[in-house]
Design goal:
alpha+beta, 5-stranded mixed beta sheet, about 35% strand
């Protein structure tokens, strides 16, 4: 809080000036300059975005003792925070944008719609879109097309885990989707050698 003092100094007519005695009348004007700043701070608190965390998964080769073998299993790679007030579709789109940028060379992951079904619950349709320069397998440099991310045992399994686990969010406690249907270039994904993204994908 800041104060501004207005001081009026006038001679005391009853006291000789040669004695240097002055009668001082002080009028204090208190200006509460912090009022507006307090209001702005309150406004900042009111508009502060409430956020929540979502996990991003990758595949990790892990030794399974009971089967005496290595298997690729989901591993939490990082977390991102998203505005809690966004819709489910907007939250999934934010996750999809992170996956695109960080794991799939900015290949487009389009969350086209979310709908409810009687048997499978709430479903998200997600389309994996190739670059406009894509003309078929081998037409672009490695890993500049979804085709490359579908290839090989390791690559295909990792792609499945990154997309499936990160979109479905097994540890998230809020309202979420129950399954996802993946499309490739607008067509339903069929069974492939190394990728398991066909049909309604659930946890």
């Amino acid at each position: 809080m800041n104060f501004r003092l207005k001081i009026n100094i006038t001679p005391d007519k009853k006291t000789p000036m040669n004695k240097k005695v002055l009668k001082v009348s002080i009028t204090a004007a208190i200006i509460i300059t912090t009022f507006s700043s307090c209001k702005e701070r309150e406004k900042d608190v009111e508009t502060e975005v409430e956020r929540e965390s979502f996990a991003i998964y990758v595949g990790k080769d892990t030794f399974i003792a009971e089967r005496n073998t290595y298997e690729m299993i989901p591993h939490k790679d990082r977390e991102i925070v998203i505005d809690k007030n966004k819709t489910i579709k907007e939250k999934i789109s934010s996750i999809a944008d992170t996956l695109s940028e960080s794991y799939f060379n900015n290949l487009k992951i389009d969350v086209s719609e979310i709908y409810s079904t009687g048997s499978s619950g709430k479903i998200a349709n997600i389309n994996l879109v190739e670059s406009p320069d894509f003309e078929g397998p081998g037409s672009l440099s490695p890993y500049r097309s979804w085709y490359d991310f579908f290839q090989g045992s390791y690559g295909g399994q990792n792609t499945t885990i990154v997309l499936k686990e990160s979109i479905l969010q097994r540890d998230y406690k809020g309202q979420w989707i129950d399954g996802v249907v993946f499309f490739y270039q607008g067509d339903s994904i069929r069974e492939m050698d190394h990728v398991r993204l066909e049909g309604v994908v659930t946890l």
